[in-house]
UniProtKB/TrEMBL annotation:
<dbReference type="InterPro" id="IPR003593">
    <property type="entry name" value="AAA+_ATPase"/>
</dbReference>
<dbReference type="InterPro" id="IPR017871">
    <property type="entry name" value="ABC_transporter-like_CS"/>
</dbReference>
<dbReference type="Pfam" id="PF00005">
    <property type="entry name" value="ABC_tran"/>
</dbReference>
<dbReference type="InterPro" id="IPR015854">
    <property type="entry name" value="ABC_transpr_LolD-like"/>
</dbReference>
<protein>
    <recommendedName>
        <fullName>Cell division ATP-binding protein FtsE</fullName>
    </recommendedName>
</protein>
<keyword id="KW-0067">ATP-binding</keyword>
<feature type="domain" description="ABC transporter">
    <location>
        <begin position="7"/>
        <end position="226"/>
    </location>
</feature>
<keyword id="KW-0547">Nucleotide-binding</keyword>
<dbReference type="GO" id="GO:0005524">
    <property type="term" value="F:ATP binding"/>
</dbReference>
<dbReference type="GO" id="GO:0022857">
    <property type="term" value="F:transmembrane transporter activity"/>
</dbReference>
<dbReference type="InterPro" id="IPR027417">
    <property type="entry name" value="P-loop_NTPase"/>
</dbReference>
<dbReference type="InterPro" id="IPR003439">
    <property type="entry name" value="ABC_transporter-like_ATP-bd"/>
</dbReference>
<dbReference type="GO" id="GO:0005886">
    <property type="term" value="C:plasma membrane"/>
</dbReference>
<comment type="similarity">
    <text>Belongs to the ABC transporter superfamily.</text>
</comment>
<comment type="function">
    <text>Part of the ABC transporter FtsEX involved in cellular division. Important for assembly or stability of the septal ring.</text>
</comment>
<dbReference type="GO" id="GO:0016887">
    <property type="term" value="F:ATP hydrolysis activity"/>
</dbReference>
Amino acid sequence: MIGNSIIKLQGVDIFQQKHLVLSDVNLHIDKGDFVWLIGQTGSGKSSLLKVIYGDLSINTGQGHAGGYDLNKLANKDIPYLRRKLGIVFQDFQLLTDRTIEQNLLFVMKATGWKDKKLIAERIRDVLEKVGLRSKIKKMPHELSGGEQQRVVIARALLNDPEIILADEPTGNLDPDTSEEIVMLLKQISLSGTAVLVATHDYHIIRTFPSRIIKCESGKVLEDVQIG
Ligand SMILES: Nc1ncnc2c1ncn2[C@@H]1O[C@H](COP(=O)(O)OP(=O)(O)OP(=O)(O)O)[C@@H](O)[C@H]1O
């Protein structure tokens, strides 16, 4: 971390293949920030997130995320960078053939946790944070959509990330459940973990006003107001 800065992009150009998607991106996200990311389909939101989690490399400008220099990121660094980032994406859903506890255990083993007592404590802690301690032995299909999304957030918290990156975390949820999920993410940001949420849901943004950045016409605009 450089000071309180968790994400810092300066003059970064973002390409998909040879296609320039976003140019001269300047973005700062600090400890505990809660930031909405908006923009039309195809405007570059996912590409921006990909740069942050090391799935797209950068050649122009300077980029840092979770203490890693994105200009110099080697393949071997990527798993370590991702431990500094809690990823809540639609395509990282729960494994349906095992309990909530086993889902969390799976990630912990994959990220190098060995001590059984510490693992059990950490699983209890993250489930407590998302209000689902009593569901530890349940299978995913025994939980509601909102509860499953809470487990995905718990899983993202396991390695105590500096930032949560959430792509449409309320996409499949009804309005009340969406509000509960955003309230949880807000609460997480208040405890010091930054949160960046990509969404098309302006209703939820109006309900939880916060800093908004927008991908538009090949740029990332800062401090956008929505009507
Ligand atoms: N793997 C790829 N190869 C080539 N071009 C791509 C690739 N992925 C995305 N693009 C292009 O990059 C541009 C930005 O796409 P991106 O997925 O970042 O948009 P988005 O704002 O996240 O859209 P959505 O809201 O639909 O998820 C689009 O023009 C898209 O067609």
